[in-house]
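Dear all,

This email documents one entry for the complex benchmark we are building for the journal club exercise. For each entry we list the sequence lines for every component of the assembly. Then comes the predicted three-dimensional structure of the complex as a C-alpha cell string, followed by one or two observations. Please use this as the template for your own entries, and keep the labels exactly as they appear.
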Amino acid sequence: MDPTNLMLNGLTRGGDIIESTVRKIAGTATTRARTDRWNVVTVNRPPQEVMPDGRLPGPLAEMASEIEVQVRPAPADKGSELAARITRPSDGGEQVPGGKHTGDQRERLRTALRHAKMILETGEVLESDKPSTTRTTITNLPLELALRRAQGTGRL
Amino acid sequence: MKALCWTGVNELSVENDIPDPRIQNRHDAILKVHLSSVCGSDLHQISGYIPAMREGDVIGHEFMGTIVETGPDVQKHKVGDRVVVCSVIACGSCWFCEHQMYSCCDNGNTNPAITEAMWGTHPAGIFGYSHAMGGFKGSHAEYVRVPYADTIAFAIPDGVEDEAALFASDSAPTGWMGADLGGVQPGDIVAVWGCGAVGQMAANSAFLKGAERVIAMDRFDYRLEMMERHIGAEVLNYEQTDVDLELKERTGGRGPDVCIEAVGLESHAPGPQYRYEQVKQQLRIETDRPHAVRDAIMACRKGGTVFVLGVFVGMVDKFPLGAFMNKGLTMRGAQQHGERYIPELLDRIAKGELKTGHLATHRMSLDDGPKGYELFKNKEDGCLRSVFAPNGAASAA
Ligand SMILES: NC(=O)c1ccc[n+]([C@@H]2O[C@H](COP(=O)([O-])OP(=O)(O)OC[C@H]3O[C@@H](n4cnc5c(N)ncnc54)[C@H](O)[C@@H]3O)[C@@H](O)[C@H]2O)c1
Ligand SMILES: [Zn+2]
Ligand SMILES: [Zn+2]
C-alpha cells in the first residue's frame, strides 16, 4: 500500500484518538450536541446534604437564574444524583429547553457541577499546581487550549 | 528549586529555576524529597507515547521524603514526619475511594475532560504523569506538593530504610495489586511477563498470596537473574525459548492459573512482527504494542485470569478476543490502588517478606537524571531502577 494512504487510513483509526481528543476539547473540531440535555454527577452524600432545604450547592447557586436542578437518591450506596440543565440563555432571555445557548454557558454548567460535587465530597476544589512550569510552543498550543477548557468540556 | 523536566520526545533536562511548590488546598502538604525513582511508566512518557505532556513538565512519581509544611486540614501528618507517598492522587472520600478503587477516584484529576474524551470517564490524578492525569508536578525535584496528604501519604515505620520504603510508593503496590485482584490462590501457578521492578513485585506478591510456583519472562539476563535470586521465581528468556510451549510443559499442559502482564505499551517481541508493529505505532496506526498481553491470553489456562499491570493508552490491533472469549478468561487491569495496600506492604517490607531492598541498582544526584534515565531505558549497566536524591545524599540517610 502507498505509505501516504497507509498513514491516512491509520489516522482515521486508533492512532488519531489522542490528537482528535485534544482538538475536540480545544474547540477546533466541530461537534454537534443536543442542547437540552441534563448534565449529571453522582455525589457520595445523601440528597438532604446535597441540597439542604432545596438550596443549590454553591457553584450552581451562582447560575440559579439560568438552570433547572434536580437531586435524587442514587441506587444502592452511591449517594445522590445531582442533575442540571440550562433553561435560559445567560443574557436572561426566554426559556429555551431544546433551543440554543452558548457553549460558554454549557462549560460553566459542567464546571459548576464538577465543583459542587468536589466541595460536597472533599470540602474544597482541588487546584492544579501553580505556577505552571510548562513553556508554550507551537506544537503544544492545541493542548494548552484544551487544558483551559478541561473542566468545562468532556463527557458529563 | 531544581527539578528534572521533560523537554520533548526523548529529551530531559535539569532546570534550576522551577518555583518552589506551596500549599494551595487545605488538604495539601509540602514534601522535601529524599528519594525519587524512575519507573517504566516514565519511559512511555519520555518516548512520547503518553499524550498531553508539555515541554517543561516535571516528571517522577515514585518517591519518599519528609513533610515540611501542612495545610490547615491535614490531621494525620505533621512537619518532620518521614513518609512515602502513593503515586496516585486520590481524595479518600468519593464512592470509588470508599470502595478502595483509589486510582478510579473522582476528585484527583484537575483536567477531567481529556481522559473523558479518550476513555469515557476520568481516572485519578498521578504525580508527574502528563496533563491527562492532572498535570501535577512530579517528584524528581527538591520539593513536591502532595494533595490530599492524609489519604495518600503514609508514615514509614522505624527500622524501614528510605531505600526500601521508597518502592511502597508505586512498584510494590502495583505488583501486589496484580496478585491480589488477579485472584492468586494458594497452590496456583502464576506467570509474570516482564522482570522490571513491577514484575518482580508481582512475583514476590504472588508467592506471599500462596502461589506454589511463579514463572517469569524477560529477555535481559541480569533481570532474570535478579528475579531468580531475590524473588525465587523460575525464569524464561523469551528470546531463547518458545514461551507458550514452555509454559504448557511446565504446567502439565494446562497453562498458568493467573497471568500477570508487567510490560506495557512498548513491549518487545522476537522476530519481524515486532518491527512491523513498531512501524505501525510510529505511523500512529495503533497507539500501543500489546505483545505480552496477547501472549498472556494465549498461555492462560481455561477459566484463568489475565491481569494487565503494564500501562496502555489507546488502541491495539490483533487482540485475541476469540481466545479470551472461548477460554472463559477473566481480564482485569488498573492503575495501582496503592492507598489500599501501602500500610500492609510497609509492614511486610519491615518483616522482610516483600523484598524491595535490591531494586535501587543506581543511586545518583538529580543532576545525573538524564543519565539515570538513559541507563534505565537502554537496560545498561545492570540497571533496574535509577534513584535520585534531589536534596543530596545527606538528607536521604
Ligand atoms: N498499573 C500501574 O499502576 C503501574 C505502575 C507502575 C508501572 N506500571 C507499568 O508497568 C510496566 C512495567 O514497569 P517497570 O517499571 O517494571 O518497567 P521496566 O521497563 O523496568 O520493565 C519492563 C520489562 O519488560 C520486559 N519486556 C519487554 N517486552 C516483553 C515481552 N514481550 N515479554 C516479557 N517481557 C518483556 C523488558 O525487557 C523489561 O525488563 C510499565 O508498562 C509501567 O508503565 C504500571
Ligand atoms: Zn510508576
Ligand atoms: Zn476519591
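Observations: Chain A touches chain B through 52 residues (CB under 8 Å). Residues 9 and 141 of chain A are 25 Å apart (CA to CA).
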